[in-house]
Design goal:
34% of the residues lie in helices and 22% in strands. By secondary structure, the protein is of the alpha+beta class. It has one domain. It has a five-stranded antiparallel sheet with strand order 1-2-3-4-5, covered by helices on one side. Strand 3 (40-44) and strand 4 (47-50) form a beta hairpin. 13% of the residues are buried.
Length: 97
């Protein structure tokens, strides 16, 4: 039988994660830049969720991502988790089985 992880071990794993799969189509992925570690994108294939527009925007190659795109589509992890766990987001974008 496998030994259960301690709370400390679980926290260490969580803190080192770079991607969280929310559903078959939706993920939250770390998009850190330099020393900015808490920059997460909500992804659906090659598209990023746009903060205030309730829409998806195509994510260009890194060299083509400007400051406006980054400001619209990057979140602290806590905010990204709140968004994907909201009733409205889940109703619109998370496929129910």
């Amino acid at each position: 039988m496998a030994k259960q992880l301690t709370v400390e071990q679980k926290l260490a794993l969580f803190e080192s994660a770079t991607r969280f799969r929310i559903s078959e189509d939706i993920a939250i992925e770390n998009r850190r830049k330099g020393n900015e570690f808490d920059r997460w994108a909500i992804l659906n294939g090659g598209f990023c969720y746009y903060k205030n527009g309730d829409e998806w925007e195509y994510e260009p190659l890194p060299s083509n991502r400007d400051a406006v795109f980054m400001a619209k589509t990057r979140y602290p992890l806590a905010v990204a988790l709140d968004i994907v766990n909201s009733d409205e987001f889940r109703r619109k974008y998370i496929k129910q089985k």
